[in-house]
Structures are given as structure tokens and as C-alpha cells.
Write a structure and sequence with these properties.
Protein name: Mobilization protein
Distance between the termini: 36 Å
Shape: extended
Strand content: under 5%
Number of strands: 0
Pfam family, one: ParD
Organism: Candidatus Rhabdochlamydia oedothoracis
Keywords: Plasmid, Toxin-antitoxin system
Order of helices and strands: HH
Largest sheet: none
Length: 55
């Protein structure tokens, strides 16, 4: 079974959008994939840090 998707939106300036768009183009990925990867990375970093702090 596939996870149900929910749409999110954020406001960025045109300048920020252009920078992000150019950066992800160099990486060969979409903005959606880039943002999703960044969020997942941040979540796992916090989760891993919390686990190590609990030791």
C-alpha cells in the first residue's frame, strides 16, 4: 500500500527560487526531491543525535 501524499508549500523570494532551481539542476534532481531529501536528512540527524544523547 502506498503512503497517502499531502501537499506542502513554502514562500521563497524569486532570487531564492532561482538559486535553488540552478543548484538542483546541477545535481540533476527536482526541487521536490531535493527538499524531501533535505527534510529526511534533518529528521534522521536529529533522531540519531537524540539516540546518542540517550547513551
Amino acid at each position: 500500500m502506498r503512503d497517502k501524499k499531502t501537499r506542502m508549500s513554502i514562500d521563497v523570494s524569486e532570487k531564492e527560487h532561482k538559486k535553488i532551481k540552478m543548484h538542483v539542476a546541477k545535481l540533476g534532481m527536482s526541487i521536490r526531491k531535493f527538499v524531501t531529501d533535505c527534510i529526511q536528512e534533518k529528521i534522521f540527524q536529529k533522531t540519531d543525535k537524540q539516540k546518542s544523547d540517550d547513551l
